[in-house]
Amino acid sequence: SKLLEARDLRKSYGNGESRVNVLNGIDLDLEQGTTTALVGASGAGKSTLLHLLGALDHPSGGTVRFRGDDIFRKSDRELAAFRNKSIGFVFQFHHLLPEFSALENVMMPALIARVPRRDAISLASALLADVGLGHRLTHRPGELSGGEQQRVAIARALVLSPDLLLADEPTGNLDMKTSDGVHALLGDLQKKHGLTLVVVTHNERLAAAMGRTVHLTDGKLELTSI
Ligand code: ADP
Ligand code: ADP
């Protein structure tokens, strides 16, 4: 079934002379449980699109329907609740809290959502085991390698069981071998949790291996493979 439907999405930044149109009418459907790789030149608007799909920012025009619901008709409060419940984000830089252990970092969104502490601990431990870090629960981010830090960030993104995982160049900061491992992990988690995954990547080889690829060029999307 259809999880998300974007129609004629537009985004501009700035006003008057300095106005820049980044997205010029994007149509995109995401079927539940599928992977979509989003590729395009630097500055093409990939992050902008991901932010709109995940309701981190408002479009200048167009709609995003999530299970049929027009998300930008929600109030800011409703939108924040929707985002917490339904969307997981992974960014190029992990944004882990340096003073907290891997386990505490992964638990944090659950604690904020008032999941009981014991349940949060068991959820977070299970997810860290899933990402291959069952032996690193008490390590702080600074004691982990780059690939391990990104695995913790992925576990954190999944702790509230989102339907949609949006990953913005999750391996942009990693060497090639580590990148391959993180991409493989994302693929495994996608299958195991039945996630709908959108991943921005520069690596077209990895993109093609993960699912369909869509290209963002001149503010429009082109489907290049299924
Ligand atoms: P990509 O992720 O493909 O590299 P981005 O979505 O980050 O592209 O950026 C697309 C364009 O929009 C770039 O020209 C960028 O400078 C511009 N842009 C992104 N965010 C903002 C913003 N908050 N204000 C003004 N311009 C922005
Ligand atoms: P990689 O080869 O993946 O970059 P490192 O060589 O940085 O990894 O680290 C190897 C292992 O040692 C990692 O699993 C990491 O968790 C652990 N480690 C690295 N630095 C520390 C530290 N300061 N304290 C505890 N464990 C550490």
From TrEMBL:
<dbReference type="InterPro" id="IPR015854">
    <property type="entry name" value="ABC_transpr_LolD-like"/>
</dbReference>
<comment type="similarity">
    <text>Belongs to the ABC transporter superfamily.</text>
</comment>
<dbReference type="Pfam" id="PF00005">
    <property type="entry name" value="ABC_tran"/>
</dbReference>
<dbReference type="InterPro" id="IPR017871">
    <property type="entry name" value="ABC_transporter-like_CS"/>
</dbReference>
<dbReference type="GO" id="GO:0016887">
    <property type="term" value="F:ATP hydrolysis activity"/>
</dbReference>
<dbReference type="GO" id="GO:0004553">
    <property type="term" value="F:hydrolase activity, hydrolyzing O-glycosyl compounds"/>
</dbReference>
<dbReference type="InterPro" id="IPR001579">
    <property type="entry name" value="Glyco_hydro_18_chit_AS"/>
</dbReference>
<keyword id="KW-1278">Translocase</keyword>
<dbReference type="GO" id="GO:0044874">
    <property type="term" value="P:lipoprotein localization to outer membrane"/>
</dbReference>
<keyword id="KW-0472">Membrane</keyword>
<keyword id="KW-1003">Cell membrane</keyword>
<dbReference type="GO" id="GO:0022857">
    <property type="term" value="F:transmembrane transporter activity"/>
</dbReference>
<dbReference type="GO" id="GO:0005886">
    <property type="term" value="C:plasma membrane"/>
</dbReference>
<dbReference type="InterPro" id="IPR027417">
    <property type="entry name" value="P-loop_NTPase"/>
</dbReference>
<protein>
    <submittedName>
        <fullName>ABC transporter related protein</fullName>
    </submittedName>
</protein>
<dbReference type="GO" id="GO:0005524">
    <property type="term" value="F:ATP binding"/>
</dbReference>
<keyword id="KW-0547">Nucleotide-binding</keyword>
<dbReference type="GO" id="GO:0089705">
    <property type="term" value="P:protein localization to outer membrane"/>
</dbReference>
<feature type="domain" description="ABC transporter">
    <location>
        <begin position="4"/>
        <end position="226"/>
    </location>
</feature>
<keyword id="KW-0813">Transport</keyword>
<dbReference type="GO" id="GO:0005975">
    <property type="term" value="P:carbohydrate metabolic process"/>
</dbReference>
<dbReference type="InterPro" id="IPR003593">
    <property type="entry name" value="AAA+_ATPase"/>
</dbReference>
<keyword id="KW-0067">ATP-binding</keyword>
<dbReference type="InterPro" id="IPR003439">
    <property type="entry name" value="ABC_transporter-like_ATP-bd"/>
</dbReference>
<dbReference type="InterPro" id="IPR017911">
    <property type="entry name" value="MacB-like_ATP-bd"/>
</dbReference>
